[in-house]
Design brief:
Elements lengths: L4 H16 L6 H8 L3 H7 L3 H27 L3 H17 L7 H8 L6 H23 L5 H23 L10 H16 L1
Helix pairs in contact: 1-2, 1-4, 4-5, 4-7, 5-7, 5-9, 6-7, 7-8, 8-9
Length: about 190
């Protein structure tokens, strides 16, 4: 079934917000990206804020689905699945469209901790930790919750390093190296955990 105009609008907004940021992006930018009229935009969303939340929800859904499908396709062994999470991030960092993490970006742009975008960013990160905890439990680790938190910190650090340093250092030749480093560190954590 072809996407609805609302879905097309959300997808266009997601791309623009991810590439340019939330505050720097205008509704005109989103209209141009999606080839959507202003009337269509306002028929589906009352405000830019409402569109931001819809775009963040869509990004969460797409990102987590891609991550889980990648992991399941790459590994059957539970410990190998944990390693595959870092392989997914390496592929993501090395892609032409990597602009950091939309949820880290939202936390940076929306200063009020209780704002709707910050709450959505937190929920996304908590879902990633929950997924890591499930992988750690399946791997038979003694403290799946504690190890999942450590793995998440390694992932988050690698995301920021890939964006801040990896895309600049050596002309952006190898931002995926941060995921590989985080993966080596993660495997050491798993061996202890």
């Amino acid at each position: 079934m072809p996407p609805s105009r609302r879905d097309e609008l959300i997808d266009a907004a997601m791309r623009v917000f991810y590439r340019c940021g939330f505050h720097a992006s205008s509704l005109d930018d989103i209209q141009k990206e999606g080839g959507i009229s202003r009337m269509t935009l306002y028929n589906h969303f009352k405000s830019k804020d409402e569109l931001i939340l819809a775009a963040m929800r869509r990004r969460d859904e797409i990102f987590r689905n891609r991550l889980m499908k990648f992991v399941e396709s790459k590994a059957k062994d539970p410990r190998e699945r944990i390693a595959a999470v870092f392989d997914f991030h390496e592929d993501w960092f090395s892609g032409d469209e990597f602009c950091g993490c939309m949820f880290i970006n939202a936390a940076a742009e929306f200063s009020v901790a209780d704002s709707a975008p910050r709450r959505l960013a937190s929920e996304h990160k908590q879902e990633i930790v929950r997924y890591l905890r499930e992988l750690c439990a399946a791997a038979g680790l003694d403290d799946p919750a504690g190890v999942a938190e450590q793995l998440n910190i390694l992932l988050e650090g690698s995301i920021v390093a890939a964006r801040v340093v990896g895309q600049v250092e050596d002309g952006g030749a190898n931002p995926g190296s941060y995921a590989r480093l985080a993966k080596r560190m993660a495997m050491a954590v798993i061996e202890r955990g």
